[in-house]
Each structure stands twice: as structure tokens, then as C-alpha cells.
Amino acid sequence: MPPGAAAAASAAPGTAAPVSAVSGTVAPVTAAPETTVPGASPGTRTPHTSLPDGDPPPAAGPGATPGSEPWVRALLARHWGLDPRTTGVRPLVVDGAAPLSHTAGLWQILEPGSRRVLKVRRFPEALRPPAFHEVKERVAAHCRRHGVPAGAAVPALDGRTGVRCDGTVSELAPWYEGALAAPADPAQATALVHCGLRLRRALDSVPGELRAELAAATAQPAGGDEDWSTALVDAARLLERAGRRDDPWSRLVADTLRPAVAAGPLLYDRLTAPGRPTRPPAVIHSDLHPHHFVVSPRAGDPSATGTAYAVSAVLDFDHLHVGDPLLDLAWLAEAAGRVTGSVARRRALAAFLKDAVRLGLLRPGEEVLLMPLLLAHSLPVIVRIARDILENGVRSPQWPGYFALLSPERRLAVHRRLAVAGRSL
How many helices (H) and strands (E) does the chain have? Predict the structure, then answer.
């Protein structure tokens, strides 16, 4: 893993939207966060025209394909005023490969003295309505005021954070020093969980008017995920199909779907039981997997296990919406459940439960709802990928990474451990 993490990670699979649009992204980082229009940055500012409604004029001439490098250069010049002569543009590469994202293009933007990331959403199902981007930034700013290092967008020249052009929506974001969290490390998992709990408290305090605006802007969730119970039926069908084949891709699908189908009774028992207590809807991030936390060592502050870490940025609020706040806690519980070593893992889960209950974010007994919620949340994404592999012949090298990130087998194991840890609450 490179020594840094880009602030514009794409959303993770299994989010409330398309496969985030799908996941986290890693890259070297040097620049500090920026929260204002980069007027002091080097480069000539060029005027542009933007229409208040609908797409603005094309970013480039007829020969430039949306999402291509010439198109990106023209977009940056027109909407952010970055001088093409001094601005470097290159596809974001992680360990020699493209980041884990299939609905967005990610680009390194190199200016004299700074680096940024441009995220271009290319498919209609990945697009949000124009109002969403402004509301998202206001929620992120609210979180920053409450001590949460929520990633900030770099506004375009007209002040917008989401630029609509040629059927795409683009956002420019700063880079943050650090690396994406590795929850196998107890110290990094601790930093992730503590920051996630602070974020959950900040989101609970979002003013009602802003929460209502977010609900209106996300009334049609991006991606249009199918219901988990429908996905479960399709998972059983696809598992049977994969079992009749003996190629590596079919075995990958079968190994992923088998525990997902086995989880069916648990999902129905925990999520559909009559009288199951529910939480009032709240603003939720909904995609708090480890790739959306940038961590850095805390100088001169060793932990009991070695290096101590702090979260320098929480990324990708693209799937922000009003929903069940237990979903955010489920992502944090899973991170604690990924710590290496049985003893350290038990301690991490026990510490998560103790802190979540102490802060009033979780009631005793709700711990057994967390992994069923997370399994149900990600199941439609897993099934869509399985369908692509088995029925559409789409065999992206990114699919194994998605399956690993959303592993039903791991979540069932975390569920069992949470149930045991919850008995001591």
C-alpha cells in the first residue's frame, strides 16, 4: 500500500448507492485539506459559462470524449480555472492498477505545489441531483465543526462542488496525508472506530431543516438497489448456476454466495420479526468501510501495541442519506471484528460495544442487528456482481476486491462474536 490515501475515494460496494458508487482508493498524498476556491493556486484563471439549470456547455471540443484526458483538462480549465499548461493530469493508479471503482473515473491533478483528485461520475445510475452536492458539503461542514475530519470539496469557480457537464458530474477534492486504514492493526482499528463514533454523534446532531433537505435530495437513491430479499432469491439461483461450473470465476462467485444464502434465515429473523425495535431515521454516511478513513501515525504518542494512529480524513459522503443509524455502527463493528488475533479481536469488539453504548448510540441487545443490517445492505451489490460474472461475461479484475470488501462469510463470523460480546453489556 502506498504511503497515502486520496481524499476522493470512490464509494464502496455495498453502499446505499451503486457499488459506490463503489469503493476506496489509495494513492500517495501531500497536500493539506482545502476548503475554499483555490484562487491563490498557481495558474491562469479562465472565464467560463455555466447554465443555472441543466448541463453547461461541453467541456471540450467535439473530438474530446467525456471522461478522457483532453476532456478532463478542458473541464478543469473551464470550471476550476486551472491552467492546462501548468496542470498535470493522469489516471489515478494504485499499486500499478486502477482503484476499486467502476462507476467513476479518478484522476490525479498535479499543480505546482499541490495535488488533488478529480472524480468523474460517468453513468446515469451514479449521478445525484444537483441539490445533493450542496447539501452534502453542508453536512460535511457540520461534521467538521464537531471535530470530525470530514473530507472537503474544492468548489468550482461558480461556487458549486458538483459540476454537471456532458452527462457527468465531477468533483475536485484535496489529498490528505496518510494511508487508508488497515483494521487488522488494532491501533488503526481503534482510531477508525473512535472517529466513526464521533462522526455518528455529529450526524445525529444535524439540524432538522438540513436533514429534511438531504431527505428530499436523496428521495431516489443512486443506483436503485433492489430489495435484499429479492437479491437473496437471486443469490440462491446464481449459486446453483455457479455450482454447475468449474472455472475460477464461478468458484469465486460460489464461495461468496454460499455464506450469503446461508445467512437468509438470520436476515429474516433479525430484520423482519414483528415488533422489532427500530431507530428513528437519521442522517447516515452509510459507507464507512476502512478505505474511507485516512490514518496517520501520531508522533510521540505510542499505543500499548506500538504506533498510535489518528484519522486525518473521513472520505466519500456520496451515499449520505436519511436512514437507519445502526448501519453506520455496523460498518464500525465490522472494522473492530477484522483485528488480527483472537484476543485482540475480542478486545476490539468489546471496546466498540462499550463505547457505543456509553455514548448512547447503541442499546444493549441491538448488537445482534448490526451484521444482519450490513449483510442486507450489501447483498444487492454482491448479487449484481455475480450476475455480471455468470450471465453477462463481465469479469473485471476489480470484482475479487469487491467480494473481499463485502465478504458475507466474514460478517457472519463478526455477528457470532458480537453476540458473545454483547452478553457482557
Answer: 12, 11
